[in-house]
Structure formats: C-alpha cells, structure tokens
Design a protein that fits this description.
By secondary structure, the protein is of the alpha/beta class. About 25% of the residues lie in helices and about 15% in strands. It binds iron/sulfur cluster (SF4).
Length: about 180
C-alpha cells in the first residue's frame, strides 16, 4: 500500500469483552485472513505500537487502565474499536458497572460494528485506520470516528409487563 511509511504495529487490549471479538481478531492474524499482508504486526507492548485495538466496553474499574494503555502508545497513533460493546456498551450497556463505549475515555478513530464483527469487517477497519495513521503522520487533522448507535436494548413494548391470561382460557397455541 502506498500510504504505508512502515509496517504499523498493533497492540490489542481486552477492555471488558466476552472474548467473542477477541477470537475474531485473533482469526485475522491467522494465515486464513492474514492481516500481516497489510504490514500489520501484532505485538504485546503498547510502547512499541502504532495502533491500539480495543474490544469490550468500559466499566468503572478498567477506565483508568484503558486510559493508561492509550497514553503509553506513542503519537501519532490510531484506535480501532472492535464490536458494538466498544461503541455503546452493547449487551452489557445496562449493567450497573458499565460506563458505555470506550469513546467515553479515549478518542476512537475507527469503529467496527458487529457482535462480533466478522474478520473481513475487522480487516476493513484496520485498513481504514492505516489511512488515518498516515494522515496523522503527515500532520493532517483527523476527525474522530462517527459512532454507531446500535444497542441491544429491546423495544419499549417488549419491556411492558406481561398480562396474565383469564382463568380457563387457552394457553400458547390454544391446544388446552
Ligand atoms: S460485541 Fe458481542 S462478541 Fe464483542 S465483546 Fe461485545 S458481546 Fe462479545
């Protein structure tokens, strides 16, 4: 790719994930999906990384840890948020300890929607992040990503209390 000045290195942080997104990200690193063909190397130290890949939502305990990992990645850097949990809290959004998406703590450059996203979608998000990284390296202003609004909350009518059926009436399917 022309936009690559060097091979960007990516560090992965599981913020509060159920591991579904992590498994899909790991699939991207296998020879089948081969993320490395875009020059991306997976590393374990944020101080050596250019891309911070985050899975899961933010809670009261891990918000400071996420911020700490973000600060350790040297500038210029990009953040790729994988899965709906990273954008809205996803299936955990209503839990007592959840703050919401990771953009409540750190800026996000690319959101990859899905629960979990397929490896193809993750690779697409990573390639988008490479272009943003290159723009940052060139000193250009890069706008934060537009946040997806999808949540797992059921529609209001599904939350309405169930009214018991009158005594003697037929049950489900009307076969009684
Ligand atoms: S988006 Fe879905 S698969 Fe990914 S961490 Fe959240 S619940 Fe798990």
């Amino acid at each position: 790719m022309k936009v690559l000045a060097k091979s960007p290195w990516a560090v992965h942080f599981n913020c509060n994930s159920c591991n579904g997104c992590d498994i899909e990200f790991l699939a991207c690193l296998t020879p089948l999906y081969d993320l490395e063909r875009f020059g991306v190397l997976h590393i374990g130290n944020p101080k050596h990384a250019d891309i911070l890949v985050v899975t899961g939502s933010v809670n009261h305990r891990n918000a400071r840890v996420l911020e700490n990992v973000y600060i350790q990645v040297p500038d210029p850097k990009v953040v790729v948020a994988i899965g709906v949990c990273t954008s809205t809290g996803g299936i955990f959004a209503d839990c007592y300890n959840i703050l919401g998406g990771i953009d409540k703590v750190i800026p996000v450059d690319v959101f990859v929607p899905g629960c979990p996203p397929r490896p193809e979608a993750i690779i697409d998000g990573m390639v988008q992040s490479l272009a943003k990284l290159e723009a940052k390296r060139a000193g250009k202003k890069v706008e934060p990503a537009r946040k997806p609004t999808f949540t797992f909350r059921p529609p209001a009518e599904a939350e309405a209390p169930v009214t018991p059926s009158p005594a003697g009436s037929a049950g489900r399917g009307g076969k009684e």
